[in-house]
Amino acid sequence: MMRIKLTVAYDGTDFVGWQYQPNGVSVQQRLEEAIAQLTGSVHAVHSSGRTDAGVHARGMVCHLTTELMLPVKAWREGVNRFLPEAIAVRRAEVVEDDFHARFSAQGKFYRYTILRDSVRSPLERRISWQIKQPLDLAAMRKAAESFVGDHDFAAFRTSGCAAETTVRNMTSVSLVEDGDLLYIDVRGGGFLRNMVRMMVGTLVDIGRGKRPPEDIARMLSAPGSVPPALTAPAQGLCLMDVVY
Amino acid sequence: MMRIKLTVAYDGTDFVGWQYQPNGVSVQQRLEEAIAQLTGSVHAVHSSGRTDAGVHARGMVCHLTTELMLPVKAWREGVNRFLPEAIAVRRAEVVEDDFHARFSAQGKFYRYTILRDSVRSPLERRISWQIKQPLDLAAMRKAAESFVGDHDFAAFRTSGCAAETTVRNMTSVSLVEDGDLLYIDVRGGGFLRNMVRMMVGTLVDIGRGKRPPEDIARMLSAPGSVPPALTAPAQGLCLMDVVY
């Protein structure tokens, strides 16, 4: 038996998300199908987590267990031959038998991309959230610092989130300017459902002057005391890396 | 009568090109349809040139003549309401009656995007040509200089090109590195059909060591003396700007 770790990138635009869903095609389904076509046998892949419909990844990680003695290269190049253009295995590695994509993960890095442009821009529409109003980056940066550390993120999850505890640790939340693009880079030990998108939505509300920067500290300490978080649209979000 | 200059951006992936074609939907068709929906009357738009199927634009320019007394803003924001997400009017201006998108143009700026990555990368696939082998950028830069100035570009056009003369002036051809991305920025007074893509294809052959850098000078002076140019794929090309 061998355990294989796969690092997977995808353009999430045309998928219902990572996980199998009754209403459409998921990334996991396409990946398991490609593996079945390559190997002739069924392998379940276990991921570090899910991504929602429309969310992208450059470094989603999953693992599988196999009795096949394929060269490790086949798990990348062979699988890629059967994947649609929108998905690619970026890396395949043989790992220890006790490696688990989800339980071994130490943290994740998400990047949210905002396009700051006053006129609609077709070439960035699939990978960014376009904001036409000016943004107060100084206020957003100040507010972003409030996320760092251990906090109760109960105000930053959707009602469908099944997590038992809502305390999470954020290592850093930083804003990076790149021309018209603004990246909000979020690194942390773990995330609740829709958490990054709700963090970004709240930061954007602050940038637009609709909320004071102090709202984030209030939402972390007393969630009901201020208006709920806005959820930023899916297409701006990308899972960049899972840290082990 | 008023003459309106429109600057248009589009994601060319799902169009048959700028110009009307019997085999699918063109950008020009969608733009003229949107104008008809907004104004209730037919306006023909005249462009600075064509782009092929799959080629993108950030700054395609076209003009139209109208008897309608709409505020100029309507030609941008109003038209955008009826355009698909993949097309947007970025700018609308009232211009002199003798302005002509094609005949008044002094030059154009095209950017060709190459992704240098040894593994397939889904998120750049619509806007770049991925090259998996290493590229010798020094050889490419040296070769690119040979394009600058007045030259006969007969070796850099497709057989379907109807231009009467093949001498064109290139102002600059420069390579710009941006992480894994490599831009080949081409500025010139005028272009033949597929010219930029054939210039890029030849530069990439040089970068891969399949041709010497001197081949470009030979192709400009004695086209038949060396193998013909490779045509780079459409999705890497973007019309950035038309200069008036």
What attributes does this structure have?
homodimer; 244 residues; alpha+beta; Alpha-Beta Plaits; ten-stranded mixed β-sheet; 21% helix
Short summary of the structure?
The structure is a homodimer of 244-residue chains. With 244 residues, chain A is of the alpha+beta class. The first copy, chain A, has helices at residues 27-39, 74-82, 137-145, 195-207, 215-221, and strands at 2-10, 46-47, 56-66, 87-95, 107-116, 129-131, 149-152, 167-178, 181-188, 237-243.
How is the secondary structure organized here?
Two copies of one chain form a homodimer.
Chain A: E1 2-10, H1 27-39, E2 46-47, E3 56-66, H2 74-82, E4 87-95, E5 107-116, E6 129-131, H3 137-145, E7 149-152, E8 167-178, E9 181-188, H4 195-207, H5 215-221, E10 237-243
Parallel strand pairs in A: 3-10, 5-6
Antiparallel strand pairs in A: 1-3, 1-4, 2-3, 5-9, 5-10, 7-8, 8-9
